[in-house]
Amino acid sequence: MKRKGFTLIELVVAMTIFFILIYMAFASFAYILTFSSYNKNRENIQENISTVTDQITKEIRQTYTEDDGTGEFGIKYPTYADDKDTVRNISTISTPDEPLNNSTYLKFGSADHDSSDDPLNPILMFYTMDNNGKKHRISYTLGVPTDGHGYYPPHYKGTPRRYWPSKKYEPCEILYSNLTKDGSGNWTVGISNQPVTEQVITNFYAIRPKWSNKVIQIVIEAMVKAPTKTGYEKVRYVAQITLRQ
Questions:
Q1: CA dist list (Å): 65 to 46, 61, 76, 190
Q2: Mapping DSSP to helix (H, G, I), strand (E, B) and coil, where does residue 32 land?
Q3: Residue 3 within a domain
Q4: What is the DSSP letter of 226?
Q5: What angle do CA 218, 48, 110 make, to 5 degrees?
Q6: For residue 113, how many C-alpha atoms fall within 13 Å in the half-sphere facing its CB?
Q7: What value, to the nearest 5°, has the Cα angle with vertex 150 and ends 146 and 151?
Q8: Would residue 74 count as lying in a domain?
Q9: Would you call 108 helix, strand, or coil by DSSP?
Q10: pLDDT tens across 63-90, in order?
């Protein structure tokens, strides 16, 4: 009498199918987690950019445009030229220029390429007047966390490079300053280079188009790792703001 059961081949086929199904289930779950993380990171970056662009738009529309003889009015940086667009971005205030090599990091401060620049190293700077008639000097720029020794090994304390979407483009913070004058007439009272975003911004452009001295264009860029983990996607926001008279 023959016994009923499975042959060895049938068992191997069944186990193979079972392991294939398990692999597909885990692969699908891993992709869902990766895609969820990607969406979360992208939403976080968009929230960072949206917050700072809303702030810039609100403040720059209050720019003090009256020439009161002090030279402290309107937009100071970028300066306006009627023969070409004037652009300031990360390459204006740091060195080396991107894309970076594997062993290099951005350096700020004394590395500013503009010798006539302000110590705050602004990408964007303008003047406003509050309800009490006090003038404010507002600026936005880019920077990275530092311990005072510089942002490069062995003093490197910023975002670990393994978390960067691309090692060629270092993520930065947008820094905000809102200063008024002290009793000696120096711009020292208020907020100086305060981070207003997380360390996620890869470039920040302030553009004065040659066709109008009343218009400023703002471009903010960031990067997020793609769901495939083999590349990155660029998040870009563009705004054009017209100064009020």
A1: 31, 10, 11, 22
A2: helix
A3: no
A4: -
A5: 65
A6: 13
A7: 65
A8: yes
A9: coil
A10: 888 888 888 889 999 999 999 999 999 9
Longest dimension (CA), the chain: 113
Say if 231 falls within a structural domain.
yes
Sequence-ordered strand ranges (E) for 7-145 = 75-77, 86-88, 124-129, 135-143
Among left, alpha and beta (phi > 0; psi -120 to 50; other), residue 181 is: beta
Q: How far apart are CA 121 and CA 123, in angstroms?
A: 7
Angstrom distance (rounded) from CA 109 to CA 132? 33
Site of tokens 């991107």 = 98
1 within some domain = no
**Hey, is 222 helix, strand or coil?**
strand
Angle at 174 between CA 36 and CA 119, to 5 degrees: 165
Give yes or no for a cis peptide into 154 (omega within 30° of 0): yes
Dump the DSSP string for 137-203.
Answer: EEEEEEE----SS-SSTTS--SS-GGGSS-TTS--BEEEEEEEEE-TTS-EEEEEEEEE-S-TTEEE
Residue-wise pLDDT tens digits, 203-241: 999 999 999 989 999 999 999 888 776 788 888 999 999
Task: Report the domain count for the chain.
Answer: 1
pTM attached to this predicted model: 0.81
Q: What was the pLDDT predicted at 156?
A: 59
CA 191 to CA 24: how far, in whole Å? 54
* Domain of 161, in residue numbers: 8-242
Helix or strand or coil: residue 116? Answer: coil
Q: Is beta strand 173-181 parallel, antiparallel or unpaired with respect to 75-77? A: unpaired
